[in-house]
Q: What sequence folds into this?
């Protein structure tokens, strides 16, 4: 999966500005350009009923939002090329249409104005579930700082997630961070007899084999240290524990059969709602 630019959705809210900060940092680490976008459906349709004088205040407000976000990004990362774009579409269509840029899209957890409903459970979840490109939801409080813990966590499930692996490695290399692969497992249960038998050994070996089978791109002479952790636990609590103190949690998502969207599942939903760090959801290739 090729990422050609980093995109942040902005609406002037503090949460979207935190997304701008994260996106600017990521664009800097990756050596890519940053695009800041804002969606205004009225710009497309209300011109039939409003003249230019009536639209002027709205246009000015939108431009101020974009200009302010752009200035913030340039101040944070002076060397990153920054472009702004007003998208004359509804929010969902506008963000999904970004596929033409091959982006990494960054969203804040809340929003208003041009992005009404960047609340998890609304637009952000729908975008994350349908986007054919990686989406990062910036969670946590306060402005993101330089990666301090230097750790990227990758959730490993039973399905192929090579695209998620690639993104996790790219982020670890770009941020000079360690990469931790985490897989949660349960003991095998035998209900064939009079009592319940728990086979811990076989399940543990199988989990470790699954982790060892994850193929990573060549890390060359990078400083990335790779750790593979198989934990006897339910997936969501295991990933939440691993994400504590991490700079980024990466999870994969798969297409639902006969449906254009992704199967986020309960674990990914839990991460998007409760993870203590930014969460990247990566669609399977």
A:
């Amino acid at each position: 999966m090729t990422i050609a630019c980093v995109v942040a959705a902005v609406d002037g809210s503090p949460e979207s500005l935190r997304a701008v900060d994260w996106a600017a940092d990521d664009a800097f680490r990756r050596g890519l350009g940053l695009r800041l976008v804002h969606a205004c459906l009225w710009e497309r349709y209300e011109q039939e009923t409003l003249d230019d004088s009536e639209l002027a205040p709205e246009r000015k407000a939108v431009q101020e939002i974009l200009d302010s976000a752009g200035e913030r990004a340039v101040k944070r990362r002076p060397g990153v090329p920054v472009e702004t774009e007003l998208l004359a579409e509804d929010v969902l269509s506008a963000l999904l249409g970004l596929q033409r840029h091959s982006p990494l899209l960054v969203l804040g957890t809340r929003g208003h104005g041009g992005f009404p409903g960047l609340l998890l459970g609304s637009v952000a979840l729908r975008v994350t579930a349908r986007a054919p490109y990686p989406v990062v939801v910036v969670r946590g409080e306060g402005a993101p700082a330089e990666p301090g813990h230097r750790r990227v966590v990758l959730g490993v499930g039973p399905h192929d997630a090579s695209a998620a692996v690639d993104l996790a490695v790219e982020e670890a290399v770009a941020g000079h961070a360690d990469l931790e692969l985490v897989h949660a497992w349960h003991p095998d249960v035998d209900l064939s007899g009079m009592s319940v038998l728990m086979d811990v050994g076989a399940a543990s070996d199988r989990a470790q084999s699954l982790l060892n089978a994850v193929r990573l791109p060549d890390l060359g002479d990078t400083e990335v240290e790779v750790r593979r952790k198989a934990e006897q636990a339910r997936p969501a609590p295991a990933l939440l524990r691993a994400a504590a103190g991490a700079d980024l949690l990466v999870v994969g998502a798969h297409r639902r059969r006969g449906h254009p969207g992704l199967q986020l599942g309960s674990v990914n939903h839990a991460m998007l709602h409760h993870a203590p760090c930014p969460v990247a959801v990566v669609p399977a290739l």
Residues 52-76 form the longest helix (25 residues). The chain has a mean pLDDT of 84.
